[in-house]
Amino acid sequence: MNKAPFIYLFSDATGETVETMVDAALTQFPVDNMQIKRVSNLRSANQIRTALETVLLNRGMVVYTMADQELANIVHEECDVRKIFCIDLFTPLLMKLSAYLGCPPRGTPGLLHSVNERYYRRIEAVDFSVKHDDGQELRTLYLADIILIGVSRSSKTPLSMYLANSGWKVANVPIIKGIAPPEELFSAARNRLVCLTIDPQRLLELRIARLRNLHQSIDSVYANLEQIIEELDFVKSLCKKQGWPMVDVSEKAVEETANDILTKLRLK
Questions:
Q1: Between 250 and which of 71, 115, 199, 233 could a Cys-Cys bridge form, CB atoms 3.0 to 4.6 Å apart?
Q2: Domains of the chain as residue ranges with CATH
Q3: Which string of b and e fits 184-207 if b means at least 16 CB within 10 Å?
Q4: What is the pLDDT along the chain (268 residues), one digit of tens a residue?
């Protein structure tokens, strides 16, 4: 990313919980210029909308923990309207606990009835996409709303999670040069599949960063420009032969690429 990434932490209380969780997650990423902004005590739709204008200005993302289900729905819907990437850390846990324990959270007696069909679909989509990440569960690939294919580090997983958070069941399958793609891809509906492409030099940078993060040598075939070009050519040739649409992820934010995918598949 050319600009310092901003993560805004929304809460209807102090925001300490969401900050602790995000801080723990960020230790897994080698990003030095991350900007973390806590926005606490959000108690109305107007406060949420005002806060989101700043998020939009900085092209940030929102991570939120709202005990009030109505406020949680407002955050999600307003982010969706503005094409802001958002993650709800609290509500999925409440819902799973409610289902397991057979009762709603204390202090919110109408919680289970207030969650609409759209919300349940979103939770189901996230669960589906996690189980179908990186070529897993090919037997149920046909149930996916969207299937993403591409080489390693072409943003398949981040895009899957972003689209799932909007209610789409997404599967992603890696394509490896020299290994035949799984047969399930060819029997899947043509109008559900998108091939991800990326600039070779950009992919090289991403792979080198990945190897360094894993403390592995960058002197490998995985981070060799000629090999990368061959891999990308193989994927492009496969997609052209099958008539699968292609979307370039080079230098694009996740939300921009997701929008391109939905447009290509006429799901907008």
A1: 199
A2: 6-115 (3.40.50.2300), 130-264 (3.40.50.300)
A3: bbeebeeebbbbbbbebebbbebb
A4: 446 789 999 998 888 888 888 888 888 887 778 899 999 999 999 999 999 999 999 999 999 998 888 898 899 999 999 999 999 988 788 777 877 888 777 645 444 444 556 667 888 898 899 999 999 999 999 999 999 999 999 999 999 999 998 899 999 999 999 999 999 999 998 899 999 999 999 999 999 999 998 889 998 999 999 999 999 999 999 999 999 999 999 988 888 999 999 999 999 7
Length of the chain: 268
Cα 235 to Cα 149: distance, rounded to the nearest angstrom = 9
Q: Distance (Å, rounded) from C-alpha 29 to C-alpha 241?
A: 37
